[in-house]
Amino acid sequence: MELSDLELILLWQRGENKAFEVIYKRYATRLLGIAMQKTGDRELSEEIIQDVFMCMYKQKNTVSQLSSVMAYLYVLLKNRILDAYRHQLVQRKYEDHLAYTATEVDYSTISTIETRDLEKQLCIEIEKLPPQCRTVFKLSRQQYLPNKEIAALLKISENTVEQHMRKALRLLRGSLLDYEKSLAILLFLHLRK
Description:
This protein has 193 residues and is mainly alpha-helical. The protein has two domains: 5-86, Rna Polymerase Sigma Factor, Chain: A; 128-192, Winged helix-like DNA-binding domain superfamily/Winged helix DNA-binding domain (Arc Repressor Mutant, subunit A). It has seven helices and no strands. It is rod-shaped and about 115 Å long. Residues 23-88 form the RNA polymerase sigma-70 region domain. Keywords: Sigma factor, Transcription, Transcription regulation. It comes from Mucilaginibacter pineti. GO terms for molecular function: DNA binding; sigma factor activity.
């Protein structure tokens, strides 16, 4: 003869743990089916069912006042599923935030690397300038001397200083333009992979 839910609960409250196992076996499969329909995730559904029965187990002393064990378990299930949805929503928001933040960091990191590479390339190209042109450029752009002081220091006219600067800038612009094109091609090829 099969015992009713109320009889099982009373036995369980008196210390008969087998009675709780019977209640578990009676409702776990049905609840799992409901949870699977709602979540679409078997592993999550199984965790939720375990949580539902753990909650019932912790409320051992108050469950005898229930009119329907299935209704009670269903309410617990519904609340746990809603908790799982909320948790997933928070997790998605966090992942979206991380993705957005990571993208910002990636762009700033790429920008920093590109700037460093460009500075290195500029130094290389400066060293390739003709000697007098290089000297004038370094005095002007690295030591910030005015043309008049550069002319006096190198014993050349200000006009010659200006000519060397124009030549240096033209040569550097040309070589860095080639570098930028190469960099753009490499970046394009990298992004296509």
